[in-house]
Design goal:
Number of helices: 2
Strand order of the largest sheet: 2-3-4-5-6-7-8-9
Oligomer: single chain
Low-confidence stretches: 1-43, 286-293
Largest sheet: 8 strands, antiparallel, barrel
Radius of gyration: 29 Å
């Protein structure tokens, strides 16, 4: 009878060499799969505009200068406040990504101009301006003469803890402090987070459709009491998107506690771990990568089982 036993391809490999080649091939393939499936950092890059500037602008063939002192900026909302020479005012300052806009008005109320433009990679700015009243009275363009915006890279998520009603306006009776959660991303929706703390006694939240609980989680140093806050999901889902919320309350916490964030992104659920007072970036492989890993391991197992049977 013919020998129906499976044999390695006739490539000159021995049985062990063949299996070793298969293993190496699958491992390399899995590495490629995981690279494809792993999410990139959200790369939350914003700009710090605080400083002194001189902008030049041209309107109706005339060249003018606009000195401006940007005194403060909110890195989360992108709004900024600024002053200019006496007799004028700056309002509506806003930066979204690398887009900037503001209004320069005369204190007399006679006129105002709407400035909008882009921040270049080197921090210089330029754009167009027009009559802010929509009358089409004038238009032109503007540019930086002196002063540069400074790029700032923020963590994807940040968590800060505060104590007392002065820092936590909605602090319920009986709770001692609050966590202020900040989502700096624009494409990840937070569905929950945990905060490990050996002093955790109780927690609560007034965020709509969210719940709170005390549990125990191992953050790498053994089980630890944990504040847990979570979106109740279903039809009443209320994930925390770009922005912040300080309506997560606790009784007794210590600074520098580990926390873990859970969020939904473009390719599925992700998570990251950080420390309160700081932040964390998305680095956990997404389910797409894990499913590919499982498929690859299944293929490897099937191959090895086939080789094992052929040797019986």
């Amino acid at each position: 009878m013919p020998d129906k036993t499976r044999k390695p391809p006739q490539t000159g490999y021995s049985e062990n060499q063949y299996l070793s080649h298969v293993v190496r091939t699958v491992v390399v393939a899995l590495a490629i799969m995981l690279t494809i499936g792993s999410p990139a950092y959200a790369d939350v890059v914003t700009w710090n505009l605080v400083g002194n500037y001189l902008f030049g602008y041209e309107v109706d063939n005339g060249n003018y200068g606009l000195p401006m002192d940007i005194t403060s900026m909110n890195s989360l909302t992108g709004t900024f406040t600024a002053t200019t020479v006496p007799g004028g005012s700056i309002s509506g300052g806003l930066v979204q990504g690398s887009q900037i806009s503001f209004v320069n008005s005369s204190d007399s109320g006679c006129c105002s101009a709407y400035f909008e433009g882009m921040i270049a990679p080197d921090g210089t700015m330029s754009g167009t301006l027009a009559d802010n009243n929509g009358h089409g009275l004038f238009g032109g363009f503007w540019y930086t003469i002196s002063g540069n915006a400074t790029p700032v890279t923020l963590p994807d998520f940040q968590l800060f803890e505060y104590t007392g009603s002065a820092n936590c306006p909605n602090l319920p009776a009986g709770d001692t402090g609050c966590f202020d959660f900040v989502n700096n991303t624009h494409n990840y929706a937070v569905t929950g987070f945990d905060v490990g703390n050996s002093n955790a006694l109780s927690d609560s939240t007034t965020r709509t459709n969210w719940g709170a609980d005390i549990t125990s989680i191992n953050y790498g140093t053994g089980p630890e009491s944990t504040f847990a806050y979570f979106d109740n999901g279903a039809s009443s889902a209320n994930p925390l998107v770009h922005g912040s919320d300080s309506n997560f309350f606790y009784t007794t916490a210590t600074s520098g506690s580990p926390f873990e964030v859970f969020a939904d992104g473009p390719n599925g659920p992700v998570s990251c771990i950080g420390t309160t007072g700081g932040g964390c970036n998305i680095v956990t492989p997404e389910p797409r990568a894990l499913s590919l890993l499982g498929a690859g391991l299944a293929a490897l197992s099937f191959t090895l089982m086939g080789r094992s049977k052929s040797r019986r």
